[in-house]
Amino acid sequence: MTRARADIVADIHEKLGKVRYPKKEVADIVESVFDIIKETAQREGKVMISGFGIFATRNKRARRGRNPKTGDRMEISARRVLTFKPSPVLNASVNRPIGEIEAGQKTDEIG
Question: Is 72 within 8 Å of 66 (Cβ atoms)?
Answer without folding.
Answer: yes
